[in-house]
Every structure is written in structure tokens, then in C-alpha cells.
Write the C-alpha cells for this entry.
Amino acid sequence: MSYGGGPYSQGPYSQQPPYPGQQGYPPYPQQGYPGGYPAGPPPGQPGFNVPPQQQQPYEAQDMYGGTETGYKEPEMAAFEFNDSSIRRGFIRKVYAILMCQLAISLSFIAWFVYDKKTTLYVQSHSWLVILAFVATFITLIALSCCGDLRRKAPHNFIFLGIFTLAQSFILAVISSKYNTDIVFMAVGITTLICLGLTLFAFQTKYDFTMIGGFLLVCCLILLMLGLVAIFFPGKTIRMVYASVGALLFSVYLIYDTQLMMGGEHKYSISPEEYVFAALNLYMDIINIFIYILTIIGNAKD
């Protein structure tokens, strides 16, 4: 096609000038790279792979039992740090709630042990004990079975507070039947046992979270032993029952503590279940206290 004379006579779209790098033109400047640019982008530019020394090494076990090594991306390391910090905050919240519960219980026990007028008043009004048992049973079932209730504030704290007050009242009534030295000896022994078991649960490499079914069977055996102690009362059967109960709930304390810790253990409690975790630990501790009190009381009877 021809457009007449001039520079466009050859057709501007039929013949285009060759691009750089084609025949007749020099190649791109090499800038110190022999043979032109490397296959990937130059160092320091977006898309360049992060050198291994800036990544975090890891070692994991694959599905076939082998060991897999490599490097973690910075984003993954930050996510794991956030998860561990959430777990630590959850543990602090649980123990703060637990300390408040134990302080209330100890206050009630000291009140009933030292104030005999209060003890006589409660003994002459037995309906107060029945009311406390009913309140304990209702709030315990509500917190254990209703997941939405125990996760929603302030309803979870209200029910937990009612449960703690009712249970503390029952503990105070039971403690008022023993001498003051026996009660505070039981408090001291329970404190040492719980502190030692908690430190053991935090330090041990053994996973107690997998024995939940075994502990349930032990609870059923303890229930049967309690029925035997009711129909065949005696000092020996009471000592055996209290000893088995103290041992069982000591293991339960380790079990519930490791459930709260999470981490390397197989099972764990969600960080949203801080009320339920505090309730479990509180029940373990007060059961240990009741059984220790029974053992010491029978030994000094």
C-alpha cells in the first residue's frame, strides 16, 4: 500500500522499526551482570526471596513419623506469639477469679469457726443449709450445661458469685463442726498440696488430659464407696472413703490445670471458658479440703 511521496510511502504500519535487542540495535546495558540481567529480579527489589537467615527455623513431625525441617515466615511466628499471649492472659484471668473465690470461702470459714453465735443460729435454722444446697446445685448445673450462659458477661459472673457464696456457706457449716486447730491444719495441708500439684502440672511432661474417661470411672467407684459408707458407717470406712476422695481430686486438679494450660497437651479449654476453668479448679480444691478435713478429724476423734 502506498500513500504517495514522502516518509510514509512505505506504509507506516507495514514496516516498524526494530525494538532494542533485535537485529541492528545494541542489547540492554548489562550493569555488571555478564550476559544481561539474571533470571529473577535483582536483590533488594520486590519479589526477591527472603534469605534463610531472616526466617525462623522450625522442626515438626509429619504424618509418617519423620521429621520435617524448614523455616517459618515472620507472619506465622507473630501468629503463634499472639496465641501464646492469649493463653497466658487466660491463665491469669482464671487464677484471679479462683483467688477471689478462695478468699470468700476462707472468710466464711473463719467467721463460722470463731463466731459461735452464728453457728448456733444456723443450726437452729436448718432451712438455710437446704437453701444453700439448692442454690449450689442449680448454679452448678447452669454453668456446666449452658455454654452461652457461662461465656456471656455479666450473667456468668452473677451465677458464679451465687455458687461461690452458697458453697462457702456450706463449707463454713461443715467446718464449724470441728475444732479450730483441725480446720486450719486442714487449710494449711490443702494449700501445700494444691500448690505442689499445680507446680507439678506446669512442669511435668506427662499429659494428664487424656485420662478423662479413667477419672470418670474413678468418680463412679467413689460414689459407690460413699453409698457403702452410708449404709455401713464406721471410722475405717470413713478414712478409706476420704483418702480415696483426696487422691482422686488431687489427680483432677492436675487434669484441670493442664486443660487450662493448653500448649503441647492433647486437649485444652478455649480461652473463652475462663469461668468454667475457674469453677473446675475451685471444685477440685474444696473437695480436697473436705476430704483432708475428714481425715484429720477422724484421726483426732
User: Anything to note?
Assistant: DSSP finds nine helices and two strands in the chain.
